[in-house]
């Protein structure tokens, strides 16, 4: 079993060119997943959360279609086969 | 001799090149959709290094460098460290928002680059701008709680390392001017004589909203400050300041520039007033002084009439040419260059995003 991560195209260059990849063994929370990604793809991870560990304000993370901001945030649990999608929020001008 | 002009905007970086500073070719965008609020052309090394900040509303701030974009344009490559180049230590509980200033140190310290950042902080790189360390003396300063953000955010936006000593002068908004004589260990406010009309009298020891500081060609003991409002000069390294606004028709603005070649030669880009931040009568012009601000005259043939924006604090610069070149960028994406000390300007670019910073160097 593995957690699938899906990224917007603009971030692929920071994940060895991948827009989608699997992480195994599956981490149990979003926070654990980001910690793991920080070790593998630090340039990617620092675009998702700042040095305090907080998700950046205009970054949304969905677990199986649910925004973690409306759930338990970084403590949101992952199932062994969850799909985690990163999407930029509507921002800018 | 090629002059390289780096133009940082809200949505990317453009580069302009000229052999005579009158006819320019434009190359870009680089770093498209990244806000480039600070850029430096580090010409201390055999291959000039471009340093630029990239900021995304989504993905946050970073610092990039290139050793060949300056010479190869679009064929060059940008590089970025794996780990964040500027990262607040965990115990501060702070997170970097923006990098507003990248300032290479002197030729005698060829790998030292300073960064002024938001939240208000100063950083020093000892490896040419790849990684930076927080200057704790300023971060831990007891005045910090009283440094209030201006509209542009709370930031160190000006860094002036003295090439002949361990002195470093910074300016922050708000907070004002601070000076360290030991490369950043200890800091003292240095605002005596600078007004703060947005606070009750008398003017405070610190808390001024100094928009920009420039050092005279004769050396860093003579400094100029564009304040909010007022233009000031210090002849004692910032220990005391006196107004040089007397002969100026308008004393509000953001940049102040000093020739690196000719002592006493300085420029400001006036706006009508704090409450009316547009060029007087919509005429973008420059005020120039040849005597350290005792007298001023309007120059800027070729600059536009009917411009109702501003020139932001780093959207103006000078080069090291002879005579000194002067460069302005506007919020409607135009860039102007003068090869004759501001007397006349040619348009280098138009219709770019808002210009946040310009920097020029001879390659």
Description:
The complex is a heterodimer of chains A (93) and B (363). Chain A is of the alpha+beta class and 93 residues long. In chain A, 19% of the residues lie in helices and 23% in strands. Chain A contains 2 helices and 5 strands. The longest helix of chain A is centred in the middle third of the chain and has 11 residues, at 30-40. Chain A is globular and about 40 Å long. The model of chain A has no long low-confidence stretch (mean pLDDT 95). Chain B has helices spanning 69-72, 136-139; strands at 3-9, 12-18, 25-30, 39-42, 49-56, 60-66, 98-104, 113-118, 121-125, 133-134, 155-161, 168-173, 176-180, 188-189, 210-216, 219-227, 231-234, 242-243, 252-258, 266-271, 286-289, 297-299, 316-318, 326-329, 335-338, 346-349, 355-362. In chain B, the strands form 7 sheets. In chain B, strands 3-2-1-27 form a 4-stranded antiparallel beta sheet, with no helix packed on it. The longest helix of chain B has 4 residues, at 69-72. Chain B is an all-beta fold and 363 residues long. Classes of the chains: A alpha+beta (93), B mainly beta (363). The A-B interface holds A 10-11, 42-43, 46-48, 50-52, 54, 56, 58-59, 88-89, 91-92 and B 56-60, 62, 80, 82-84, 87-88, 90, 93-96.
